[in-house]
């Protein structure tokens, strides 16, 4: 009988590398020293799945508690019922299951006095896995018991590991909002797949995107684990190891998955005319069930990616519409063409430096181009008046802030709500002397405080109808003088500390003309 079990659980032969495995931890809890000695002798040389045993001894239930408190890897505990008291072993079982909430360790009760704890009652009332009398537990039965319980413990560990992996995948899917978070999702699923299928931890997931302009296909690495983790998720497949890119090209040309001696490359078509490639290293050929699991995975991730790609297109379209509308307003007010783009980028930089959450940074960046949209309601005679505005005209000009709110507040979309907030308050001043509501300090929305600084900073460096562009030194001086009066000091400090980066925006996005006219504030 020993021979059968030994052959069944022996390590695989062949060229597989021998791996030093962690021993199975077995705890013996019994107040009889001879029981410990005999049990150790009976289990001498015992192995399960190529790993030996680590036998721990506790000579009382209290000592058993102390060991359970310090070890979380006990696979099996064989516990005597009667020790310090007639029910000490049962109390230990209750402690392990209910106090420690350990439901993974296999617990076997062993007693020399069955009458004191009847088997039926113990099995019914206590969460144990077996109940043995010491006289019945022969050497062979003891070894058989270990095989059975260690298998159960092993399977529970696998289930817990896979459950944790599934939790990671589900957690990743909750963050699937952008292509970047899809990479997190795909990497988590790759890791789970390699665990489920007992594969090498090295895997790659690549997508193939059609290029409408060139008619060619573009490739991009979406997720990488193990030996491939060094490759950036922005890398083209051609930048991968030569053997990998060659196999990808071969599989994509055939539009079918293929087995290689050390890897499997799976292909699935995408609705957009592209495809998805999954590269998995392995030591043996995958079965049909495993291949089906891989196919389901690639199809699911492909669908997810396509949905996110569509969302990205919608977001980009929304941004383009905002810039188009903002450019139309600037054209009517005769302001320089690249002004709104530079203001948006400056707002993004300031918001991030200020420590705002990325979601809020993106909203401020994309909403700030609409800060002057209310000027569409201002008559041309006032917008284009060459001379100074009189009091009545200036009062009407100031109403463009309220007009902007009236236009934008009709939408409940976060972007439009942020734009409405900026349009209304970007002429408020830190000292309370601004308009339309005379807000001061932090009563002014942070989005408006940021946009106000970015707008004035860019306007001062631009050529306007009534002035030449100021030098960077003059602009910096004016911004510094406005700290604490027109602008929030903390924002001014951030801008001046990073002045080169903000000045570089004008070189990156220059005005289309040198003599564009400007609106007035």
Which structural traits does this protein have?
Beta-Lactamase, Hypothetical protein af1432, Rossmann fold, 3 domains, elongated, five-stranded parallel β-sheet, alpha/beta, 10 strands, disordered C terminus, 521 residues
How is the topology of this model organized?
Layout: H1 2-8, E1 24-29, H2 33-42, E2 53-58, H3 61-70, E3 74-80, H4 88-99, E4 106-111, H5 119-125, E5 130-133, H6 139-173, H7 179-196, E6 203-210, E7 217-225, H8 242-254, E8 258-259, E9 263-269, E10 275-281, H9 288-332, H10 339-353, H11 358-367, H12 380-383, H13 391-398, H14 400-408, H15 414-425, H16 446-460, H17 472-481, H18 489-497, H19 499-508
Parallel strand pairs: 1-2, 1-3, 3-4, 4-5
Antiparallel strand pairs: 6-7, 6-10, 8-9, 9-10
Helix pairs in contact: 3-4, 6-7, 7-9, 10-11, 10-16, 11-15, 14-15, 15-16
Provide structural commentary.
- Helices cover 50% and strands 12% of the residues.
- It folds into 3 domains: 2-162, Response regulator (Rossmann fold); 175-310, Beta-Lactamase (2-Layer Sandwich); 333-508, Hypothetical protein af1432.
- The longest helix is centred in the middle third of the chain and has 45 residues, at 288-332.
- The protein is an alpha/beta fold.
- It is built from 19 helices and 10 strands.
- The radius of gyration is 36 Å and the shape is elongated.
- β3 (74-80), α4 (88-99) and β4 form a beta-alpha-beta unit.
